[in-house]
Predict the structure.
Amino acid sequence: MFDDLYIVNLFPTERCAGLVKSREIAQNKMFMIHNTLGEDAKIFDVDEEPTPAALFNKIQQNPETSEEESFYTKVLNRFIQIKKDYPDLIEELNDYPVRIKVSKQFKEDELLVFFKKTRLYVMGAKLNNGKIETYETSLDEVLEKIMCEPDEKPLELSNSFWDNYQKVKEIKETISVPTSEQSIEKKALNNINFLLRTNRMEKLIPYKSFLRTLREDILDYGTLADFTLRRIANLKTEESKIDSAIEELNALRNDLGENFLDKEKAWLKKSHKEIIIAIENQTTAKIN
């Protein structure tokens, strides 16, 4: 494994290119390279079409004569400035967990979730006419929404955070998770959410922390076996049968352990298997 990989294409002169199609071949090779590496190749702006001809014209441009600063240049300059002003912060990034959830103040309520696994996916969720609306977006479109000043205070996650987060995860997982597995997970999550929200049954209070851990695992880590998910999905949530649910929750907690997810978090922190950052914007909220 290498930290940096440099790919170089040498273009022949116009005279040589007239004899052989090496120039065209080189252009097409670079187009293939860009398609393989995706936006990490950092050759095109997000609104430019990566055709061979456009790629060749792009690399011949003089950056000093560009009329407008590209999105990549804008972000890079911002990062360089932060690195200069706050070098300790950049060093601390190496110790950050691979699952981060944070909330801050903004002019509109919205949840933005960033998934980084081979490539970057950006998804959003917000309330529209009483319903949670999810959509796919891009970093350049939401950059202004996630930026904040160094002295900005974090907010408590809103009551709607987990509902929005669950919707976003469901949309993303639709691509790769079989329908049957989604159904089991959804039933399990519905039971967990109901048990966490109900305030009518004091018997559940000792299990709230464990229920939150189960929810976090299903939404973020996926370590629970199908058998365990089915046990959660089959919990009896009716008030008349709550003793049965508590008995099963107690058995699950004994089987898995109260802090069973800590080991998975520690492993992911080292492996960087997938990075997920959720940023919630709130118009009004209580500051921590």
Q: What stands out?
A: The longest strand covers residues 119-128.
